[in-house]
Write a structure and sequence with these properties.
Largest sheet: 8 strands, mixed
Helix content: 25-40%
Distance between the termini: 26 Å
Strand order of the largest sheet: 1-4-5-6-7-8-9-10
Number of helices: 23
Radius of gyration: 26 Å
Number of strands: 20
């Protein structure tokens, strides 16, 4: 989400699918054959996961859930179509995962531990302590978090919430916190909030600098413009969908910096750090009295993302594997039940050890074999094309490509070690995409001939090639309806065949936009809690990336900033079309000095006021030349998450 001054902090208010209906086409014969073949490759008679997912069920919540303003927050009703066998327009393996993720409600794990699953992208875990409840990960929005807690309280003894644990810094695991506790609960000592070291820094920063681009890409990854249905959105692999509503954050009161035992609400919890694995700041936990291991999001019933399609830093697959190995070694022999903050439990000691072993080896195999092929000289596309899991992993449901995929994770390993350049000199400085597309189409005999040949390939089921060459055609002639429709048709068939929820969403979102156009400039409101948690220095980083360098050429100015309520001071320098800043500094000869409260800056970023209004009201005082201050503001670009992805940007 974003506004005119602060790029998107997170993508997650984009909400449940269902904003537009695509002009979908049926599955082609080649797609029907490909999906039918999946039924022969995997053991669909294995119903153990369904039994595991339903075990301990107590009750489901009211559906749908509405936000205070009457808007839709969450609803499983739109996914009733998942009953029955997979249609030709869906990969049967993804369909099975979608059916599993549709099992929702309150579940008993064991005495004193409960989970609310399928009421948001993530799970909320409730641990009953002596003095009250421990809430682990209060979901994405306050509406779903409140409904989850209410569902629990309808069926269990009434106890207050006395502790909240954020397992890691991804927003679907903390942003519903105000649905279950308040600032007063914290300030008056009724509730303590625990989080791993680095949580606040990464919770706010991950999506700030590249936030606008990440928001746009997330629309594709999560299929936020797709209608739920057999030809549209069916699942995200990691969970059903994203709830819609406000994002909130209450900073932790207690930081967990190292592995070890803590007593919280009378419950002994062994924290096991997993920094730099699935998230930059993450922890797992073991409950010795219950013999329950909670792996947060370090493990799940699928292959996770080493690289996420919305865009983020590549994760360390080798370190990720090692953390799983550590808890397998330390807790495997004394764990009877494994739970996590997505998906369903593993119910017995043998199953736990088997599950952890497969997950451990999955990430290490992808890492090691990608690096092996890289060291033999193979390029990212070649590694992705030839890398295969061994049958002992490939045959396991818990290693399938429902969220991450073997292909894009293998590319991520290459990127982590060697970056974008594949060492082929021809790829060092290629032509821009639109110019290359125009020349390629011309070399191939012109767009009419290219489309004619592509239609023949489409009829043969060669959708990967048709999507690739028609993308070139669209970049060469964006308004060519025949090229756009053939490109969309190929992407649609690839989406129908995809085992990964995000891959399906990406393909079908591309097809929708080729047919119906982009999302427009509508933007979500900035989350006030996340803004207040933003480090002041990061504001100047944001100004730096929004600075239009060509327009700033030749200009030089120095500004002193003093935030009076926090007593923070910054020196900001514009020179060589570059904005730099230093904390705890004031220039002796600044062009202007700006005095304001940090709360005033927050109000401006939230669009509750503006810089001119704040100056006029006296909330901002400027000493020196005020025009220098306004000069800086005029050099800032505006960002909106509506730029083209499947066609060239406007020239």
């Amino acid at each position: 989400m974003h506004n005119k001054l602060l790029p998107a902090l997170f993508m997650l208010s984009l909400g449940l699918p269902g904003l537009l209906a695509a002009q979908s086409q049926p599955a082609e014969p080649a797609t029907a054959r490909a999906n039918a073949a999946v039924l022969e490759q995997l053991d669909f008679t294995d119903a153990r996961a369904f039994e595991d997912a339903r075990r301990g069920f107590i009750a489901a919540a009211e559906d749908p859930l509405l936000n205070p303003d009457g808007s839709l927050s969450w609803g499983m009703g739109a996914y009733a179509f998942l009953d029955g066998a997979a249609p030709d327009t869906a990969n049967p393996s993804l369909w099975r995962q979608a059916q599993l993720n549709r099992i929702h409600g309150l579940f008993r794990v064991t005495d004193g531990i409960y989970q609310i699953r399928g009421m948001d992208l993530a799970n909320m875990t409730v641990v009953e302590g002596d003095s009250g409840l421990i809430i682990i990960d209060p979901l994405l929005t306050p509406t779903t978090a409140r409904a989850a807690l209410d569902l629990y309280l309808q069926h269990r003894p009434q106890k207050p919430v006395t502790a909240v644990i954020y397992t890691h810094n991804h927003v679907d695991h903390f942003a519903g916190v105000r649905g279950i506790v308040s600032e007063a609960d914290i300030s008056e000592g009724r509730v303590r909030i625990y989080a791993p070291e680095g949580f606040m820094e990464h919770a706010v920063s991950e999506n700030v600098i590249a936030g606008n681009a990440m928001t746009r890409r997330a629309m594709y990854m999560y299929g936020t413009r797709l209608e739920p249905g057999p030809q549209g959105h069916i699942d995200n692999g990691l969970g059903k969908a994203l709830s819609r509503g406000e994002l909130t954050l209450i900073p932790p009161t207690d930081i967990i910096a190292r592995s070890g035992r803590h007593q919280i609400a009378g419950v002994a919890i062994d924290f096991h750090m997993a920094q730099g694995s699935e998230a930059q700041a993450e922890l797992m936990m073991y409950f010795p009295a219950s013999r329950v291991l909670n792996t947060a999001e370090v493990t799940s019933h699928q292959l996770h993302n080493i690289y996420t399609l919305r865009g983020a830093e590549v994760r360390d697959a080798s370190r990720w594997s090692r953390y799983i190995d550590e808890v397998l070694e330390e807790y495997g022999p004394k764990t009877d039940i494994l739970i996590a903050q997505h998906h369903w439990p593993v119910w017995n000691q043998a199953g736990v050890r088997e599950f952890l072993g497969v997950q451990r080896d999955l990430y290490k195999y992808i890492h090691d074999q990608s690096v092996r092929l890289m060291n033999k000289g193979y390029r990212p596309d070649e590694i992705a094309e030839q890398l295969r899991l061994p049958p002992s992993l490939a045959s396991r449901w818990i290693a399938r490509d429902y969220y991450g995929t073997l292909r894009h994770n293998a590319r991520a390993i290459y990127q982590k070690y060697l970056g974008w350049y594949d060492a082929n000199p021809a790829n060092l400085n290629p032509l821009p995409a639109r110019e290359a597309a125009r020349r390629t189409i011309d070399y191939m005999g012109g767009i009419d001939q290219v489309i004619a040949r592509a239609r023949e390939d489409f009829a043969r089921g060669d959708y990967r090639w048709v999507a690739s060459i028609m993308s070139q055609a669209v970049f060469a002639e964006p308004d060519n309806r025949a090229a756009r429709e053939l490109n969309a048709a190929a992407l649609e068939q690839l989406g129908y065949q995809a085992e990964s929820g995000p891959w399906r969403n990406v393909y079908l979102s591309g097809a929708l936009e080729l047919r119906e156009g982009g999302p427009g400039q509508e933007s979500a409101a900035l989350a006030a809690d996340l803004l207040r948690a933003l480090d002041t220095g990061m504001f100047f980083d944001l100004l730096g990336v929004r600075l239009n360098g060509p327009r700033a050429e030749g200009q030089h100015l120095v500004l002193n900033w003093h935030f009076t309520d926090t007593d923070e001071r910054f020196r900001v320098n514009l020179e060589n079309a570059t904005l730099t800043w230093l904390p705890d500094r004031q220039a002796e000869q600044a062009d202007a000095s700006i005095r304001l409260a940090r709360s005033t800056l927050d109000a401006i970023l939230l669009q509750r006021t503006s810089f001119p209004e704040a100056i006029q009201s006296g909330a901002i005082r400027i000493e020196g030349d005020p025009q220098k201050f306004f000069q800086l503001l005029t050099l800032m670009d505006q960002f909106t998450p509506d730029f083209a992805l499947i066609e060239p940007l406007e020239e």
